[in-house]
Amino acid sequence: MNNQLGIPILSILIFLPIAGAFVVALLNREKEGLIKGITLTVTIANFFISIPLFTSFDKTTAMMQFVEIAYWIPSWGVKYFLGIDGISVLFILLSTLLSILCVTISWHSVEKKVKEFYSAILLIEGSMIGVFCSLDLFLFYIFWEAMLIPMYLLIGVWGGPNRIYAAIKFFLYTLIGSLLMLLGIILLYIFGGRTFDVLEIMKVNYPFGLQMLLFWAFFAAFAVKVPMFPVHTWLPDAHTEAPTAGSVILAGILIKMGAYGFLRFSLPLFPEASLALSPAMMILSVIAIIYGGIICLGQTDLKRLIAYSSVSHMGFVTLGIFALNMQGIEGGILQMINHGIVTGALFLSVGVVYDRTHSRQIADYGGLATVMPVFSAFFMVFTLASVGLPGTNGFVGEFLILVGAFTASKPIAVFSATGIIIGAAYMLMLYQKVFFLEKSSKIMKIPDMDRRELLTLLPLLILVFWIGIYPNTFISFMDESVKALLERIYNSQMTNLDISNILEGKK
Amino acid sequence: MNYTYVLIPVLPLIAFAINIILGRNIIQDRAHLVAIPAVGGAFVLSVFALIDVINGNIYNFDVYSWISSGDFKVSVGFLIDQLTAIMLIVVTSISLLVHIYSVGYMHGDKGYYRFFSYLSLFTFSMLMLVLSNNLLQLYFGWEAVGLCSYFLIGFWYEKKSAADAGKKAFIVNRFGDFGFGLGVILIFLVIGSIHYSDIFNKVGGLQGQVISLFGYDVDLITLIALLLFCGAVGKSAQIPLHMWLPDAMEGPTPVSALIHAATMVTAGVFMVARFNPLFSLSETAMMVVALTGACTSLFAATIALVQNDIKRIIAYSTVSQLGYMFLACGVGAYGAGIFHLFTHAYFKALLFLGAGSVMHAMAGELDIQKMGGLKKYMPVTYWTFLIASLSIAGIPGLAGFFSKDEILWLAYNSGAIGKIVWMIGSIVAGLTAFYSFRIIFLAFHGKFRGTHEQEHHLHESPKSMTIPLIILAIGAVSAGWLGVPEILGGNNAIGHFFEPLLGHPKVTATHSEEIQVMAMSVIIAVFGISLAWFLYMFKPIIPKLLAHWFKNIYKILWNKYYIDEIYEYLFVKSTFWMSRSVLIAVTDSKIIEGVVNGVPQKIADLGDFLRKLQTGHLQHYGIGMALGLFTVFTLVLILSR
Prior knowledge:
The complex is a heterodimer.
Chain A: H1 9-26, H2 32-55, E1 65-73, E2 78-84, H3 89-106, H4 114-133, H5 137-158, H6 163-191, H7 198-202, H8 208-225, H9 234-241, H10 244-269, H11 271-297, H12 302-322, H13 326-357, H14 368-371, H15 373-386, H16 393-408, H17 410-435, H18 451-469, H19 472-491, H20 499-503
Antiparallel strand pairs in A: 1-2
Helix pairs in contact in A: 1-2, 1-4, 2-3, 2-4, 3-4, 3-10, 3-13, 3-18, 4-5, 4-10, 5-6, 6-8, 6-9, 8-10, 8-11, 9-10, 9-12, 10-11, 10-12, 10-13, 11-12, 11-17, 12-13, 12-16, 12-17, 13-15, 13-16, 13-18, 13-19, 15-17, 15-18, 16-17, 16-18
Chain B: H1 7-27, H2 31-54, E1 59-69, E2 72-80, H3 82-105, H4 112-131, H5 135-153, H6 160-191, H7 196-202, E3 210-213, E4 216-219, H8 220-235, H9 244-247, H10 253-262, H11 267-274, H12 276-279, H13 283-304, H14 310-330, H15 334-361, H16 379-393, H17 399-412, H18 415-444, H19 452-457, H20 463-478, H21 493-502, H22 511-538, H23 541-549, H24 551-558, H25 563-597, H26 599-613, H27 618-640
Antiparallel strand pairs in B: 1-2, 3-4
């Protein structure tokens, strides 16, 4: 464990946006320009601050890096413990990047309660970065829950007509999952030597029965977030009703937190349970891939379709993770990043047209390629990335996942590969209905993207090709950490100690 | 010299990038000035590459590491050997001619720059495909050409039929790619690499191994070969994934010539030939390839007999000829298959571009029943079209004769399966001659049957279109001279060229048999042509009577054996029904929400309650959060004591 920069960079990344949120909240609500300006400055600054994580990251070690550690509540063993490794580093960069784009895309489209909106965005940014670097379960849980509230507001206050229903549904699903995880955390605290330090807890081998129990407790929280089948139904509603920025954060970061949770906690803490449950998890993933894909074919609402496609794509992610091998997990992590980029971009794009037409109905569109040629080209690239065309980022992730899945189980890989057919079918159907065919009367005179919108989508377009053509830039971050994780899983021995010994803290 | 060859695909890629970014506002109708020099440069370099290979140089090098995850490593890399060199010539030469032709054909289209961008992108992708030294880059090219095909079929995207056809091509191909992708992964798992050289070195060691799949033991090599072949079936439009190709004719005609006749659709044949060390190890796989090819060629030829849309006839002809190439590969005559690919590229591209020239004169008319007598209005088009038709019919001296004869002869030589496919192949040769000359007689001879308006506008096409036709006509005659068999005094140069790579099947039959097989195919071809003349020039009433007498057969052929309709019900309609009426209407909204979670009603109740709490002020939620944290602390405190 080390901190090569010598400055508390992770704390800065977390608390700069949170401080920004308070500053914005204190401003006069009439000064919208200033509010937006400060928010944008903070998000951009945070992005630049996060770049050293990328450039100074030591790829030769699986150790935690940029570590900050301090006793927070010593009597309970609660630490303020931050650090990142190859599994989490990319998510932080993705978070800081998407936050900027959420601000720029909302520039003109959010008109009510501007001040609160931008504070909420900043609060979300800080807490989601917190989630990805917390190495203390207590701290993790605080950030995990803290993220929920501004997100809930984002949907409930700035969302579409049915926003209250969607927001409450989102809140309840995630809250119930989180509470079960909380029980799990408390159990771990008790059995794991009265500490919340993940690295400490990881040193203990728990009896198999306890591992299973804890796995399911954490599963409740993570599966809802991912979302895995059959707890996915909150997602289409939340996405559909959320404002553009909300959808982008949901798709780009929030649902990654579930899959990240599996990698950071479930796999290393409960290795034997993970191994035992791997087939079940893979089957659930395949169901999500196929179910989510087929259900997309019948959608009539743009955002709902993309939301269900997330269910399918996240099925690939969990499939890769629970294949429990190098290609599967690396593909899974990369696919999370990819999905954040691509689905984030798709929601941003829907935001672009929604601002012009105020309709999400696919049937209202048609012939957009003639009216908005530049936008159409961008959307085409994101569509292709979404269907996993080689040369785009989607392919690399999906292919590695399938390699991993095939290694783990041939029949499961065969079924999941049908996802690439279904994926092509619904995305091309969507593209045809919206961009091809005769011009629809509702879109006759709308302008193409302006510079702000172009600059919002451009970074994501570049990333699509960068990861597609030279993914090693990103995969190389993960190698050591994933290797260490797999060693941890496969070398874990059934503990000889019985549960009473652990209870007394003897290791 | 070898790194210079990297420019072969890169030049068209640069042209694409320039045109797609600057085309709409700056370059506009000058897009060809960027695209043509690029593909021209690629052609020149390809010629150098061919000379290099003829001189005995084979290149195999990696450019950079593409994906590396654990022990899965794959590079972007190039392999230039005999097979690649020939493919490079086919792709760049036809592409160059099609580019030039398109200057005239697409003149004035509002998507002019877009068209040339896509052509360049296609050329790049196809070159990446044939130059690859590993399976994943092949897969990249494979999907990328499919994408360009999708763009170009749906080029006139306002038209629903065009947009539909593009989508259909992409999705049908995905079915093939599904198998192909699994094949690639399986190869990685058993061999540990997906680079060609590793695969071919180690594939022999897999002989006799079995793998368990869904509880059955399957021969490993056969399984791998058949999975890869799935991809070829999709890309090269073989049964049962053939139906996208005729629909693909919705695209501009130069595209049909380049992508859907000469290059992309032959990628499947190329791949099978490339993997001949693998395919040859599995008799079952070889049999499947041979029979798929033979059946497809017969099936498509019968459909072509009765169609009236000039482009669709040629499209079915392409499907049929691709079947011929697979038939060749399936009997181990890979060299002959690639030879036919090579000659076919020229005469089939010529047929399409000729058809395009006709459409150009007829204001887009496609129905040969509404043409007639075009010979005197468009002599260059007529004569070149005639040469192509003679070539495909297999008239001695022309390109198609030599390659087709080589295939039939080698098929005849290879056992019981060989005899069956030889017979099918011979029948198809007759059908091919017949439907090809049906076009000639109906479109170019006799009296004009279109509208007066159309007749008034009939004209020969501009030079930029006729010159490529003439050059292709030269190819359609002479391409075959590379493979004149020994028995006719030639030295089968192309066969020997390929021999180190693709081998040459043992010939057991005698010389007199070879002459007999050859004579028979010529007789069949002449008979086909004569029959077409008899039915459409001499007694034009007979086809109508035949259609009347054999109404049922005619209807089945006219409707292409109803394959599209069957698939529509079996796959498309049922999946959409499943989506709308089962998953959305019942599973998601009733079962999952209702039974498993019981949420909706509770939400409604809670919503009323929470709405009262919802004030919209952040500070209230802050208090809520603090309360939540307090609860957590308390819980921890209590439980940990």
